[in-house]
Design brief:
Helices cover 46% and strands 16% of the residues. By secondary structure, it is an alpha+beta fold.
């Protein structure tokens, strides 16, 4: 199926998609703050870590289910497949390379799916995992 928008309109739509400070990121950082966790940096370093505890070398990425191909929630797009499917695969490859580089540099890498952040009941589980890593 071809894209229903012109190239210019699609570009305009895509330019409005946030790459930083998304609702999910803000929700996650609010949970960290409420748990009393401090000293983290956002969008840190050349790898653009979503949340980094630099002194403890803990890198946290919050991955969108569509953009990073969540095994449980990703649905292949119905239009513009020749663009989107390779794009998502490239994102997954870049994620793996970033994780490998950070681990090689001595970092602990935690990847959290968007759907886990959305489920407020899981905040405690995610936060406990981070507290354990910080100890």
């Amino acid at each position: 199926m071809a894209d229903i928008f012109t190239k210019e309109k699609r570009s305009e739509i895509m330019s409005k998609i946030k790459g930083k400070n998304t609702t999910i990121e803000l929700l996650f950082r609010k949970a960290l703050w409420q748990a009393g966790l401090r000293g983290w940096r956002i969008h840190w370093g050349k790898h653009r870590v979503d949340v980094a505890f630099v002194k403890k070398k803990i890198a946290i990425f919050i991955d969108g289910c569509f953009w990073h191909g969540c095994p449980g929630h990703y649905k292949k797009p119905k239009s513009h497949k020749k663009y989107w499917i390779p794009k998502i695969e490239e994102n997954k490859k870049r994620d793996a390379m970033t994780m490998a580089r950070l681990k090689k540099e001595g970092w602990k890498v935690i990847r959290i799916w968007e759907h886990d952040v959305k489920l407020l009941a899981l905040h405690g589980k995610i936060i406990r995992r981070i507290i354990k890593e910080l100890a």
